Amino acid sequence: GWKKPNSFNVCITSYDLYIRDSRMFKWRAWQCLVLDEAHNIKNSKSLRWNKLLSLRTRIRLLLTGTPLQNNLMELWSLLYFLMPSVFSSQDDFKNWFNDPMSAMAEGAAEYNSQIVEKLHTVLRPFILRRLKSEVEKQMPLKLERVIFCPLARIQRNMYNQFIRQKS
Protein backbone atom coordinates (compact mmCIF):
# COMPACT_ATOMS: atom_id res chain seq x y z
CA GLY A 1 0.00 0.00 0.00
CA TRP A 2 0.81 3.64 -0.42
CA LYS A 3 1.48 4.32 3.28
CA LYS A 4 3.40 1.11 3.97
CA PRO A 5 7.18 1.70 4.18
CA ASN A 6 9.26 0.21 1.35
CA SER A 7 6.15 -0.97 -0.50
CA PHE A 8 7.58 0.32 -3.79
CA ASN A 9 10.83 1.78 -5.10
CA VAL A 10 9.69 4.07 -7.89
CA CYS A 11 6.64 6.25 -8.45
CA ILE A 12 6.05 7.76 -11.90
CA THR A 13 3.38 10.41 -12.17
CA SER A 14 2.43 13.50 -14.15
CA TYR A 15 2.61 17.09 -12.97
CA ASP A 16 -1.19 17.37 -12.95
CA LEU A 17 -1.69 14.16 -10.99
CA TYR A 18 0.89 15.28 -8.45
CA ILE A 19 -0.93 18.60 -7.95
CA ARG A 20 -4.23 16.81 -7.53
CA ASP A 21 -2.85 14.28 -5.03
CA SER A 22 -0.03 16.29 -3.45
CA ARG A 23 -1.18 15.54 0.10
CA MET A 24 -0.71 11.81 -0.53
CA PHE A 25 2.80 12.36 -1.90
CA LYS A 26 3.74 14.27 1.25
CA TRP A 27 3.10 11.18 3.39
CA ARG A 28 6.52 9.93 2.32
CA ALA A 29 10.02 11.30 2.46
CA TRP A 30 11.39 10.67 -1.03
CA GLN A 31 14.99 9.80 -1.81
CA CYS A 32 14.99 11.30 -5.27
CA LEU A 33 12.71 13.51 -7.34
CA VAL A 34 13.30 13.54 -11.11
CA LEU A 35 11.29 16.02 -13.14
CA ASP A 36 11.24 15.64 -16.90
CA GLU A 37 10.32 18.66 -19.02
CA ALA A 38 11.46 20.85 -16.13
CA HIS A 39 10.48 24.01 -17.99
CA ASN A 40 7.03 23.17 -16.57
CA ILE A 41 8.23 24.60 -13.24
CA LYS A 42 9.92 27.74 -14.56
CA ASN A 43 7.36 30.04 -12.92
CA SER A 44 8.18 30.42 -9.22
CA LYS A 45 4.74 31.93 -8.59
CA SER A 46 2.85 28.91 -9.94
CA LEU A 47 0.95 26.42 -7.81
CA ARG A 48 2.87 23.58 -9.48
CA TRP A 49 6.27 25.04 -8.54
CA ASN A 50 5.24 25.72 -4.95
CA LYS A 51 3.65 22.32 -4.36
CA LEU A 52 6.64 20.47 -5.81
CA LEU A 53 9.05 22.66 -3.85
CA SER A 54 7.35 21.62 -0.61
CA LEU A 55 7.92 17.91 -1.33
CA ARG A 56 10.51 16.38 1.03
CA THR A 57 13.31 14.94 -1.11
CA ARG A 58 16.96 14.22 -0.55
CA ILE A 59 17.95 14.62 -4.20
CA ARG A 60 16.37 16.69 -6.97
CA LEU A 61 17.16 16.31 -10.65
CA LEU A 62 15.67 18.38 -13.46
CA LEU A 63 15.67 17.26 -17.08
CA THR A 64 15.02 19.76 -19.84
CA GLY A 65 16.19 20.59 -23.31
CA THR A 66 15.54 24.28 -22.64
CA PRO A 67 16.88 25.45 -19.25
CA LEU A 68 16.82 29.06 -20.42
CA GLN A 69 13.84 30.03 -22.55
CA ASN A 70 12.62 33.57 -22.01
CA ASN A 71 14.49 35.22 -19.17
CA LEU A 72 16.98 34.62 -16.42
CA MET A 73 14.37 34.64 -13.67
CA GLU A 74 12.95 31.41 -15.12
CA LEU A 75 16.44 29.96 -14.78
CA TRP A 76 16.56 31.19 -11.17
CA SER A 77 13.30 29.31 -10.50
CA LEU A 78 14.91 26.06 -11.68
CA LEU A 79 18.14 26.66 -9.76
CA TYR A 80 16.32 27.62 -6.56
CA PHE A 81 14.18 24.50 -6.90
CA LEU A 82 17.35 22.40 -7.03
CA MET A 83 19.33 24.18 -4.33
CA PRO A 84 17.37 26.74 -2.31
CA SER A 85 20.24 27.33 0.08
CA VAL A 86 22.63 28.29 -2.74
CA PHE A 87 20.22 30.37 -4.83
CA SER A 88 18.24 31.80 -1.94
CA SER A 89 17.93 35.38 -3.11
CA GLN A 90 16.05 36.13 -6.30
CA ASP A 91 17.10 39.78 -6.03
CA ASP A 92 20.80 38.92 -5.77
CA PHE A 93 20.52 36.60 -8.77
CA LYS A 94 18.70 39.30 -10.71
CA ASN A 95 21.29 41.94 -9.84
CA TRP A 96 24.14 39.61 -10.62
CA PHE A 97 22.90 38.46 -14.03
CA ASN A 98 19.70 40.04 -15.28
CA ASP A 99 20.75 43.69 -15.03
CA PRO A 100 24.11 43.10 -16.78
CA MET A 101 22.38 40.92 -19.41
CA SER A 102 19.98 43.77 -20.17
CA ALA A 103 22.94 46.08 -20.67
CA MET A 104 24.65 43.62 -23.02
CA ALA A 105 22.75 44.90 -26.05
CA GLU A 106 24.47 48.26 -25.72
CA GLY A 107 27.76 47.12 -24.21
CA ALA A 108 31.12 46.38 -25.74
CA ALA A 109 31.85 42.88 -27.02
CA GLU A 110 34.53 42.40 -24.33
CA TYR A 111 32.08 43.27 -21.54
CA ASN A 112 29.46 40.99 -23.08
CA SER A 113 31.83 38.03 -23.21
CA GLN A 114 32.74 38.61 -19.55
CA ILE A 115 29.06 38.41 -18.55
CA VAL A 116 28.49 35.25 -20.58
CA GLU A 117 31.64 33.67 -19.09
CA LYS A 118 30.48 34.60 -15.58
CA LEU A 119 27.11 32.95 -16.23
CA HIS A 120 28.78 29.81 -17.61
CA THR A 121 31.11 29.60 -14.60
CA VAL A 122 28.22 29.76 -12.13
CA LEU A 123 26.05 27.28 -14.04
CA ARG A 124 28.71 24.72 -14.97
CA PRO A 125 28.28 22.63 -11.77
CA PHE A 126 24.50 22.53 -12.23
CA ILE A 127 23.99 21.94 -15.93
CA LEU A 128 25.10 18.95 -17.96
CA ARG A 129 24.46 19.63 -21.61
CA ARG A 130 24.75 17.08 -24.38
CA LEU A 131 24.13 17.81 -28.03
CA LYS A 132 22.62 15.13 -30.24
CA SER A 133 25.74 15.19 -32.41
CA GLU A 134 27.85 14.31 -29.34
CA VAL A 135 25.87 11.24 -28.30
CA GLU A 136 24.05 9.88 -31.35
CA LYS A 137 26.82 7.40 -32.22
CA GLN A 138 26.48 5.87 -28.74
CA MET A 139 22.72 5.48 -28.99
CA PRO A 140 21.18 2.15 -29.98
CA LEU A 141 19.22 2.01 -33.21
CA LYS A 142 15.55 2.83 -32.93
CA LEU A 143 13.40 -0.25 -32.78
CA GLU A 144 9.69 -0.04 -33.39
CA ARG A 145 7.39 -2.86 -32.38
CA VAL A 146 3.66 -2.90 -32.83
CA ILE A 147 1.95 -5.11 -30.28
CA PHE A 148 -1.77 -5.63 -30.62
CA CYS A 149 -3.61 -6.18 -27.36
CA PRO A 150 -7.27 -7.14 -27.34
CA LEU A 151 -9.52 -4.97 -25.20
CA ALA A 152 -10.90 -6.42 -22.00
CA ARG A 153 -14.69 -6.77 -21.93
CA ILE A 154 -15.21 -3.57 -19.92
CA GLN A 155 -12.86 -1.67 -22.23
CA ARG A 156 -14.69 -3.01 -25.30
CA ASN A 157 -18.05 -1.97 -23.83
CA MET A 158 -16.78 1.53 -23.04
CA TYR A 159 -15.23 1.84 -26.50
CA ASN A 160 -18.43 0.72 -28.24
CA GLN A 161 -20.48 3.13 -26.14
CA PHE A 162 -18.15 5.98 -27.06
CA ILE A 163 -18.37 5.13 -30.78
CA ARG A 164 -22.17 4.99 -30.63
CA GLN A 165 -22.29 8.43 -28.98
CA LYS A 166 -20.14 9.94 -31.74
CA SER A 167 -22.44 8.75 -34.54
Short description:
Helices cover 45% and strands 7% of the residues. The chain is mostly helical. It comes from Panagrolaimus sp. ES5.
Secondary-structure topology with pairs:
Elements: H1 15-20, H2 22-25, E1 30-35, H3 47-53, E2 57-62, H4 72-82, H5 90-103, H6 109-123, H7 132-135, H8 153-166
Parallel strand pairs: 1-2
Notable characteristics:
single chain, mainly alpha, Rossmann fold, two-stranded parallel sheet, 8 helices, extended, Helicase ATP-binding domain-containing protein
Describe this structure in words.
- With 167 residues, the chain is mostly helical.
- It has one domain: Tandem AAA-ATPase domain (Rossmann fold).
- It contains 8 helices and 2 strands.
- A two-stranded parallel ribbon has the order 1-2.
- Helix 4 runs antiparallel to helix 5.
- It starts with 14 loop residues before the first helix and ends with a helix.
